[in-house]
Amino acid sequence: MNIGTAIKSIRKKLAITQYELAERCDLSQTSLSQIETGVKRPSQKTITKVCAVLDIPESIIYIVAMQEADVPPSKKGVYELVYPSIKSLALQMVSSEHLALVEAN
Question: Are 61 and 3 in contact (CB under 8 A)?
Answer without folding.
Answer: yes
